[in-house]
Amino acid sequence: MAFISGSRGPDRQSDYKFIPRSCPIVIDNGASTFRIGWAGESEPRITFRNVVLRPRHKITGETVTIVGDHDPALLKYFDCTRSSHRSAFDSNVVYQFEIMEYILDYGFERMGVEGSRVDHPVLITECACNPIQSRSKMAELLFENYGVPSVAFGVDAAFSYKYNQRLGICDRDGLAICSGFTTSHAIPFVGGEPVLEACCRTNIGGYHVTDYLKQLLSLKYSNHMSNLSWEKVEGLKMEHGYVAQDYASEVQLFQTGTKAAEEKTRCWQLPWTPPPTEVPISEEEIARKAAIKEKQGQRLREMAAAKKSSRISDMENELHGLEFLLNELKTVKENDIQSFLSQTGYVSKQEIESAVVRVTQSLRRAKGEPVEVEDKAEASAAEKYSLINIPDNMLSPDQQKEKKRQLLIKTTTEGRQRAKQKRFEEELERERKNQEDEEKRLENPELYLEELRTKHRELSEKVEQRKRLKTNGPRTNGNQNLSSSVGRGERLNAAQKERMRLLTTAAYDRGKGEDTFGIKEEDWQLYKLMSKDNDDDDEGPDDDEAELVRITSRLQDIDPAFIPKVESSSYQTVTHIRPLTKEDFQITIGVERFRCPEILFQPNMVGIDQAGLDEMAGISIQRLPLKGDGVEDRITHSILLTGGSCIFPGISERLEAGIRKMRPFESPIRVVRASDPVLDAWRGAAAYAASDQFLLQTFSRQDYYEKGEEWLRRYRLRYTI
Amino acid sequence: MKLEGYQNMEAEVVEAEMVLPQRLSFKRVQMSEKYPKGQARARWKLLKQIIQAENYQNYPPNEPNYVNIESPPSMYPSKKFCDITGFEAPYVDPKTKIRYANADVFKRVRALPNDYVQRYLALRNAAIVLK
């Protein structure tokens, strides 16, 4: 077979020109997989997933079409951000014929079709009772676009049944139970022909099983979501899924945690590399590092010292220069001062003097000697603020500006002094308080300590309470608190919540009866409570907190038994983080192994209110138009399980048990699995199309246009030919 | 058949033949002519709309069609299973409406964030859907 799964798509067939024109092309157009091949052969030539991806090629910018699955590594050349895998199916009906056309294009192209049309009859599968619109669109597409000479439609489950009948696995009368990708069908056969009047369909299939497993696992292991791709979960389902004989007792095993359950649990280890273990650092290493650090520190200190000394010498030089300049200035005559100064860059003698003062100060600062600038400033206050007391109208504009500046300086310095004074007084007060405390303590140490402790306890409770109120809100007005601790309520603090409550009641309560708002004085208080800045007038707690801090420190000093309370809640969460282990990267599936396939029997579990596989068999038999003559027993004696979702181990036994419950006592019941639940539909169709009588079951383009829609609606293949 | 218009692609891509050729000799109308670039496409009718257009009510009820072959609801009383563990669930959490098996699971239910609760409920089509 040319089909290579995995890295590469199917190869293009090279023998097209050797196939006779009369040989039909057989297509099993399943919702999950598309299979195409030649009538009379035992295997389809081409098989691929029935999906289309239309990404943009990164270099050329061209939108391209990729049908089926391909090597994921090659997708790096394409920009897939705006497209995903798309299917032509809605449930099990083809509705998107643009996608269908891409799929058919690819199928025929891979079959090696050459020439101007697809000059072979086509047999294509469809779902049971396909809506006429879908059927006619498909026929139109095949006739108009590919120039197919004739077309036949058949049901996949029926082909599978006929194929297995030929193999002797099932009888002329029987029941096909076909669980596909999105739907499951039960189709009874009487006299070798399917009785569509009696068939039934439940909208559940392998897709739902995989989706259920994927959702459950991603809810359970939300941190490993990226590992749980559709393909991977599908693989898990195929490998580990099974159908329980009795769901309730099977689940009981797991609930009580028996050994059998443990053995049934599977574990999937995700790729994980242990973090590098830290080697304890040796003594020498520590010493070596300390030495290096010391050396570096030494170097930095030296650099800083060198810089300082150079700065000092610079400033000394400057000072010498300035002093020299002043000395020179003394010798120069009064008239020549101007010309002399113009060479030096200074304007007046005062300026040089002030420069001397400045340099001396910074020199002192650099050498680390105390600076006594403030006294000087004090002394010269009168002349510094010389302009302040002179009225504005007596000053020139420049002087006015100067006056403003002086005013500013004066107020700021005064402010600073006041603050200093205040600090000093506070210091004194604290000292005094401590002194008093100390005296008290010396008088009666025991009593004092006890008092201090109670005070500390009271205060800390008070502060705590306030904090809680601020974040959680009081329990008394908490009806909204209780009902919804999740969602919007939780984000607001108590004050905000209270405000919201006031706003809403203000909006609604006024409607009742007469509007008396505003008659009483207190009514207007409401607005004050509502206003936004209402909730931040909390000076009280600040005082309390300060007091608490003082008492705590005092207790720490004198009480040996005192342990300061650490802020509890925030700390605990931090300390509990542990390093991730191998176990954190394991996905265990226990109950899920049979919980997910169980939805085939109980679609209710995923909210689909329809009968499960076992009940479907009963419903189908009930719907039979012609009963009696032991036909029901013959049917239940030949129940065939087919379709991709019938591969689960245990499914036939479960189905048999389920059907036995519905049938009369001692009815003959035999459930068999198709020889190949996945491929038999195509094989049956290929064998069918190879028969001489096949062409009588097809219709041509002319038939299609002449006989009309009503005829196409009634069109039904005869499966026994 | 050579891949027209795909000359500028990587050798690997061309070699894998993963891209569908733009022109196929056996087609009467090529895709690019049928669905020209940049033109708004007709929306395909969804299955629901197709069924509605079929007017099944006009046909005799004993004639099988896509709608009347559907299975009826199950005759068995539906069992309740724990949304989280899959065990049989005797209890329902009145707050989240999640079914749970025992006290241990209940603790987990109460610790679940709201969106997880909704996702669990959505699994059995019981989530609150805002429209």
TrEMBL record, chain A:
TM segment ranges: none
Family: Belongs to the actin family.
Biased composition (Polar residues): 473-486
GO cellular component: nucleus
Cell compartments where the protein resides: Nucleus
Region of interest called Disordered, as start-end residue ranges on this chain: 410-442, 458-486
Ranges of Basic and acidic residues composition bias in the record: 413-442
Keywords, sorted A to Z: Coiled coil, DNA damage, Nucleus, Transcription, Transcription regulation
Entries under InterPro entries matching the protein: Actin, ATPase_NBD
Name assigned to this protein: Actin-related protein 5
Top-rank lineage group of the source organism: Eukaryota
Matching SUPFAM superfamilies: Actin-like ATPase domain
Biological processes per GO annotation: DNA damage response; positive regulation of macromolecule metabolic process
From TrEMBL, chain B:
Localization in the cell: Nucleus
Vps72/YL1 C-terminal domain residues: 80-109
Keyword Nucleus: yes
Main location class: nucleus
Pfam families cross-referenced by the UniProt entry: YL1_C
Any one GO BP annotation for this protein: chromatin remodeling
Protein name in UniProt: Vps72/YL1 C-terminal domain-containing protein
Annotated organism of origin: Aquilegia coerulea (Rocky mountain columbine)
Taxonomy of the source species: Eukaryota, Viridiplantae, Streptophyta, Embryophyta, Tracheophyta
